[in-house]
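User: I'm putting together notes for a lab meeting next week and I want to include a structural view of one of the chains we've been expressing. I don't have a solved structure, so I'd like a prediction I can at least talk through. The sequence is below, exactly as it appears in our construct file.
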Amino acid sequence: MLEQLFKLQENKTTVRTEIVAGLTTFMTMAYILFLNPNILAGTGMDKNAVFFATAVAAGVVTIAMGLFVNFPIALAPGMGLNAYFAAVAAQGVGMPWQVALGAVFISGIIFFILTITQVRQILMVAIPNSLKRAITVGIGLFITVVGLKMSEITIIKAGPVIPPTLEALQKDGGVATLNFFEWNIFMGSFHNPSTMLAIIGLVITAILMARKVKGSLLIGIVISTLIGIPMGVTVIPENFTPFSMPNFSGLYVGHLDIMGALKMGLWTVVFTFTFVELFDTFGTLVGTANKAGLLDKNGQSPKIGKAMLVDALGVSFGSFMGTSTVTSYVESAAGVGEGGRTGLTAVTTGVMFLLALIIAPLAGLIPSAATSPALIIVGLLMVSAISEIDFNDFAEGFPAFMTLILMPLTYNIANGIAAGIIFYTILKVLSGRAKEVHWMMYLLFVIIVARFVFLGGE
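Assistant: Thanks for the context. Below is the predicted structure for the 458-residue chain, given as structure tokens.
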């Protein structure tokens, strides 16, 4: 049955190889089970509810990818987009998280429409590689800023752009300050147990990564959480039990506010979720499929379109369950490296995510200081794409630079993308290289300019 369903012999693989590959993929991306609840908790969402949504969304959508596309690709709430979700829906600052979920749901519908009409595929050709890489780098920097904030290594507060007084620095335990736009950024204090735990965890995880230990991020989170117990950062409640059957009460299934997202005029937010996911998914699908030898000599595969459909539906399904954008994970390459070639790898990974529901109580123990090192390191992994940008060509390098630098400094991914498209189009046209600009880029240029002219900036 498995042979007929996944065509194992045709793909030159075995059941054992596929299962081992699926377990490997799960180990490399299981950190999202603990990291996502901590990130979204900043919006006022309950950690246990987010853990449930993360596990179910990742499990169901990854299994769907395996069964309907027969691709060894795993999906889960994406890094970067969950940080952006938390930023726009920060508790007491941004929009309600229900509205943010509605924006994610709408972006999924847009994905579906763009995919079945082939527009999504055109966009992937239209956007130049320099901007694609810059978007990845910019998100990496953005994630790092979020990780530093969660770790309390840096303390970020909204306020006027004025240097803080010495008294203010002493009150905050800081030793230095740097001001960007409307954000006051202070160095944290080494007397803060959370800061110290984050630094210890960062060192441990970095060592594991340097030694190429599989599952380094997950192992780092677990070790940091254990170290946090004697430090008083990890708090274990009375009558604690590490395992339990899934608790279906108090979940956020169906708690998204679609009409609220439409009424609040949040098209910039929807645009960001849509645009970033667009490149993230395509790059992951093509890159992983190529590594697995699943593309033809022209770098194409009839399965890519189906994979995009599953991905699009997964975005809306994830928001319905109560989590941020679900996307394809580059960690899938770890499973491919172990020999995974078919959807059985994905199904195995998906089943593991569903089985993880019984460890929900453990996820609730993990402090932000234990997960923040993973964010910082994921940021590094994404920033490494900067080496693929040609900065010697100013018309390519400057738009890429504006894209990657504005994301963290304006605390807004959409601003970086918009700046990149605007500068790329202008520089190419006015330097006599208009033929290098795809017609879709001109359309995006007009849309972005119109957005800022008629709707204003954020």
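A couple of points you could mention at the meeting. The first strand starts at residue 75 and ends at 77. Residues 159-182 have pLDDT under 50 and may be disordered.

User: Perfect, that's what I needed.
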